[in-house]
Amino acid sequence: MLKQYLINQIKQVIKQEYHLLSREVILTNPPDAQLGDWSFACFSLAKKIKQSPDKVAQHLSEQLQIDKIITKIVVVGPYINFFVNKTVWFKYTLRLIQQKGKDYGRNQQGLGKRVMVEFSSPNTNKPQHLGHLRNDLIGDALSNLLTFSGYQVIRSNLINDRGIHIAKAMLAYQKWGENKTPTSEKMKGDYFVGDYYRLFGKKVKENPHLLDEAQDLLKKWERRDNQTIALWQKLNDWALNGLIATYQELGIKFDRWYFESEIYQSGKKIILQALKKGLCYQQADGAIEIDLGDEKLGKKVLLRADHTSIYITQDIGLAKLKFDQYNLDKSIYVVGSEQIYYLQVLFKILKLLSFPWAEQCYHLTYGMVNLPSGKMKSREGNVVEIDTLIQELKQLAQAEILSREPNISGEELNKRSKKIALGALKFYVLKFTLSQEVNFKPKESISFEGNTGPYLQYTYARIQGILNKAKTDEPLDLVDDFSALKEETEIQLLKLLSQFPEVVKQAGEEYNPAQLANYLLCLTQSFNKFYHQCSVLQASTKQIRQARLVLISSVAIVLENGLHLLGIKPLDQM
RNA sequence: GCCCCCAUAGCUCAACGGAUAGAGCAUCUGUCUUCUAAACAGAAUAUAGAGGUUCGAUUCCUCUUGGGGGUACCA
Asked: Which DSSP letter does residue A378 get?
């Protein structure tokens, strides 16, 4: 690697001149390509040896050798700027990409390590909306990134299929459902169930006693009352089928499903044992509580007075179950920022109960999704459902495609519009920094222009168009001569292509898919600039043409790999 | 009340403590007989306020102001 070579050269000179072993030699990109290809800033080194940065830069640069790879060294104030041999760089990078193909950018960071990513975790009382979508997409992209970094990743989903919110939907259906079914109403199951959940919300305003009835229903469920269980099973299946259909539409898969109805009692035993050991205590009314030993966190009840379990009881049990079953190195919870305090409490409890793996639990937070009309609340119907949005996007994409290709076959139209719709939606959501709240703008989310998923897909399609027309007889991975690539845009592309492995590695380490998303935009913009300035097929010489074909084919590979990590499918034609 | 997060262009977002703060939308102006105009080129506009740390702060610290979230024997 050229960058590593440079770093080693610098390290050597620093050692020789100042007798310092500097582990951190960081090379940056100069703000302008005219300044150089890589840059070393001498500030921190200057501080260590108590000299002015300018002096250090000057002195170091005089000791550095120019060779076949480093062609020029220019000092600008405290910066040492390096120019490297582009032909060598092109050859190394492009051949590497051609050889590795789909594996270009893969790293071994997590080799031998096992990590679980729990995400999505929907309730079975309504369809998934935009808030879930962000969670789904982050969880999926993160899992992809970690897999690409060599981790063994287990994607898990905890289905919240029990509790008062489920009982509410059940009660409404029992009272006003008239034995309708999703089939009879020609509705997706989760939407069908969601309607009854909302209906409950409406009716309970007129008649507050309905809440007591729902409570009773939940108690009957807990007593395993036959009729109640049957009703629950029925609604639950409908809702779950709807949820699964959405995952299929999104192309998201899970390795392990946990159902709250099956594990909600787990954790009880752990707590009773902890009580015996004196790790927690019983209150006068019988409730079991733990002192979190921290003023900010306070105290937390672990089991109700009647020793039935509450939500955290099951999360304690589930955490243990995960580590017992999978011997995890890391357990990541993808959960919104509104649950920061809750997960802090959970992890603290696990630590206080002296589970050795407590420190390996990690909460990956992200900001909420806001609509222009304000906060999303399923109960009030102020939501944008995922399926609905995808349908809208698909229709828009179809209109776009038809305006370009009126005679396209129905099947192809369907296929393409789905990829484009999902590409737009996924990229729109994933490009936000996690800690940022997402202000969902309907118009921008359905846009296919500018910084969007379809822009990336379009660029990929453009490249495929050229490659298909090129019909080159020389296999691209055998092209050897890149000395003809001299344009600024070509070199810009080279730099970006060689950066990809670092970007992926960092995005994985920092659990930050947005970083990859922004990199891909940068690469794509750079390509389109090149596209408008340089012709590939009409290049002035065969040498340039062949070299450019390899270059753009490499861009396509990197783009495809990057999109794949974000869960977005490229298109050969648009 | 207490705790946490956020504040960058008219709008939505970028920017390992480093060189001239970048994109996209919207607005205005150009570019399709030439590899797909879902594109490209150009114009214009920004770090909420006050201190501090630092050779250097959009980035770190404190306060102020303005948004959001949390503070259950709910899930």
From this structure: G
